[in-house]
Design goal:
- The protein is mostly helical.
- It is built from 14 helices and no strands.
- The chain starts with 10 loop residues before the first helix and ends in a 23-residue tail after the last helix.
Length: 337
C-alpha cells in the first residue's frame, strides 16, 4: 500500500514566510508614519508660517540626506559605492523622478488644503499600476485593480465639488502623481539590479539634483525671498524647518525600504492610506479646507478603496497563491506562479 503524499512544509520555511510578511508590514508602517509626519510638518512650514519657497525647503531636505548618509558612510555604519564615471548612467533617470516628486509634492502642499491634496494623490496609484505593468511586467490581480478603481472614483467625486479650486495646486499635485509613480517603479527596477544599493540610490539622487534645484531656485528669486524671510527669528519655526529637512531623509529611506520589501504599487498605496489621518486632521491643520457633502462623500469612498487594497495585500496567503503583487517582477513577463 502506497504511503500518503507528504505535505511539503517545514518549520524553517514557515518561519521564513512569517519573517518576510512581518518585514513587509513593518516597512509599510514605517513608510506610512514617515509620510504622515512630513506632510503635517511641511504644511505648517509652508502654510501656517508662510515660508516663501517650497523649492528651498526641498533643497534643505536634499542637503540633510547628503549629510546624514556621508556621516554614516564615514563612520562605517552604512556602505554604498563611491562616485564613478558610470554612476550617473546607472541611476538615470531616477534623480529626475525624485526631484519632480519632491518639488511638486511640496508645491501641492503649499497651494491646496490637505484633504484635497490627499484626494488628488490617489491618481498616483493608477499611474503606478500602469507603470508596473509596462516597465516591470507585473499584472495586479482583479481585486487589486477594483480597489484602485474605487479609490479613483472617490477622488473624482470629491474633486467635482471642490469649493476651493486652485488650478496651480491641481497641476502641481497631478505632476507630483506622475513623478511619484515613475520614482516608485524605477526605484524598484534599480533596486533589483543591485548596482548602487538602497543607500547609493538615496545619496546620488540628492547629489545629482542638488545643483539644478539650487540654480532654479536662484533664477526664480526664491533664494533671496528666503534670505529676507522674517520667520528665521522664530525658534519654533526654525525647529519645524529643521525637522522637515530631517524627515525628508527619513521619508526617502522609508520609501526605499518599503519598495524593496513590497511592490512599487504597495508603497504608493500605503502613502495614500496614511492620508486617512491626513484627510480628517487636514480639516483643522492649515485652516484652508472648505467642507461640502459631495466632497466629503467622495473622500470617504476613496478611503474605503484604500482599506480594501490593504486587506487584500497583507492578508494571509493561501497555500498555493502568491501575494497579489510579487516582491520581484517575474522574468517571464506575466504573473508569478
Amino acid at each position: 500500500m502506497a504511503d500518503p503524499p507528504k505535505v511539503n512544509s517545514s518549520p524553517s520555511k514557515e518561519r521564513a514566510e512569517y519573517s518576510e510578511l512581518l518585514m513587509k508590514m513593518l516597512t509599510a508602517l514605517f513608510y506610512g508614519v514617515s509620510s504622515f509626519m512630513i506632510m503635517v510638518v511641511n504644511k505648517r512650514v509652508l502654510t501656517v508660517y508662510s515660508f516663501p519657497s517650497f523649492q528651498v525647503l526641498g533643497i534643505g531636505q536634499m542637503l540633510a540626506t547628503l549629510f546624514i548618509l556621508s556621516v554614516g558612510k564615514s563612520l562605517k555604519i552604512i556602505t554604498f559605492p563611491d562616485l564613478s564615471t558610470d554612476t550617473f548612467r546607472k541611476i538615470w533617470p531616477l534623480p529626475l523622478m525624485y526631484l519632480g516628486n519632491m518639488v511638486f509634492g511640496l508645491g501641492g502642499t503649499q497651494h491646496l488644503s490637505l484633504p484635497m491634496m490627499t484626494v488628488l494623490r490617489r491618481f498616483s496609484i493608477l499611474m503606478t499600476m500602469i507603470g508596473e505593468f509596462y516597465v516591470l511586467k507585473v499584472r495586479p490581480s482583479t481585486s487589486i485593480q477594483l480597489s484602485v478603481y474605487l479609490m479613483i472614483f472617490g477622488s473624482l467625486v470629491a474633486a467635482s465639488n471642490d469649493l476651493a479650486f486652485n488650478l496651480r495646486g491641481y497641476t502641481y499635485v497631478l505632476l507630483n502623481d506622475f513623478f511619484t509613480a515613475g520614482n516608485g517603479v524605477l526605484m524598484k527596477k534599480k533596486l533589483e539590479s543591485k548596482d548602487l544599493g538602497k543607500y547609493g540610490l538615496m545619496y546620488y539622487n540628492s547629489l545629482f539634483m542638488l545643483l539644478p534645484a539650487s540654480i532654479f531656485a536662484f533664477q526664480t528669486g526664491d533664494l533671496s525671498r528666503v534670505y529676507e524671510f522674517e520667520g528665521w527669528s522664530n525658534h519654533w519655526f526654525t525647529f519645524q524647518f529643521s525637522l522637515s529637512c530631517i524627515f525628508g531623509f527619513v521619508l526617502i529611506f522609508s520609501t526605499v525600504l518599503c519598495t524593496a520589501h513590497n511592490s512599487a504599487l504597495t508603497t504608493t498605496i500605503i502613502g495614500c492610506l496614511k492620508n486617512i489621518l491626513i484627510t480628517y486632521l487636514g480639516m483643522f491643520i492649515g485652516g484652508d479646507y472648505k467642507y461640502s457633502l459631495i466632497n466629503f462623500l467622495g473622500l470617504n469612498l476613496s478611503v474605503i478603496g484604500s482599506l480594501v487594497y490593504t486587506k487584500v495585500t497583507f492578508s494571509s496567503k493561501s497555500r498555493q497563491s502568491p501575494p497579489p503583487l510579487p516582491v520581484t517582477s517575474p522574468c517571464n513577463g506575466g504573473e508569478k506562479s
